[in-house]
C-alpha cells in the first residue's frame, strides 16, 4: 500500500532513485538523450548476450562446468537489462506511475542479477584453479552437479536480496516515488553488513585467492615458458599434449580474469554510490543527486555489453563475426595456436611491466 514514507529514524526525506524532477526548460531534451542512451545499451546488450549464448551452445561436445557458469553470467546480464525499459518510462514520467509491484521487482531483479554475476565469477574461479593448477583438464561435471551448483547460486542470491524486494515501496513525497524504506536503523545496518559480507566480501576473496594461486603456480610459469619457446622457433603445435591442454585452460582463465576485472571496475561506482545514499541519511552534507545515480547506473548497465564481447572476442574470434555478419573467415581455416601464444606473451609482459 502507498505510504507517506515514515521510515527509520522518523526521517521523511528519501532518495528518489530513478524519479528525477528536471527543469521544464531542459526536460524534453534530457529525456530524449536518456532514452536514446538506454535504448542503445539495451539493444547492444541483448544482441551481444544472445550471440554469446548461441556461440557457447554451438560448441561441439558436452558443455563443461566453466561453460555452464559463463552461460549463467550471460543469463544474469539479460535479467539485468530487463530493468532498462522500466527505467526509461520513469525518466519520462518523473513520478512513479507503474504500480507498487513493479517498484518491488525492479530493484530486486537488478540486485539479484548482480549477486548471481559475482557468485558465478567466484564459482568459475574455483573451477579454473582445479583445471590449471593440476595441469590437466578438469573432469566433466555430471549434469546434476552443474544444475545443483547453478541452483545454489540463484537460491543464495535470491534469499540475500529478498530484503530489497520488501524494502522498496511506493511513497508519497509531493509525488509518488519508489524508494527504499527500512523499518529500523538496526535492521538496515544488519542487512548491509550481512549482504556485503555474503555477496561481495567472501566471493571477492575467493576470486582474489583463486587467481593468485593460478598466477603463482609453477604450471603458469611452464605455460609461459612453452609459449616463449614456441614463438622463438615458430612451432605450430606443442610437442607435449599436456602443455596444449594447459594452454587451452589458460586461455579460458585469461578470459575470465578479464571478465572479473570488468565486473569490479563497472560495478564499484554504483556500489559506492548506494553506500553514499545510505550515509546521507546520517550526514546531510553528503548529497547525491538523482541524475548522478542514473548515469552511474547507466555505466553499470554497459557491463552487460562488455561481458559477452570480451568473452567471445577472446574465445571465438571468427565465430563471433560469422554470427553477426554471416561471413566466413576470409583467410580460411587457420591455426590459432601461435596467435594464442602471442596473446599469452603479451599478457605476461604487461603483468611484468
From TrEMBL:
The chain crosses the membrane at residues 69-93, 105-124, 145-169, 189-211, 256-279, 291-314. Keywords: G-protein coupled receptor, Membrane, Receptor, Transducer, Transmembrane, Transmembrane helix. The keyword rRNA processing does not apply. GO terms for cellular component: ciliary basal body; endocytic vesicle; plasma membrane. One of its GO terms (molecular function) is G protein-coupled receptor activity. It is found in: Membrane. It comes from Pseudonaja textilis (Eastern brown snake). InterPro entries: GPCR_Rhodpsn (IPR000276), GPCR_Rhodpsn_7TM (IPR017452). This is Free fatty acid receptor 4.
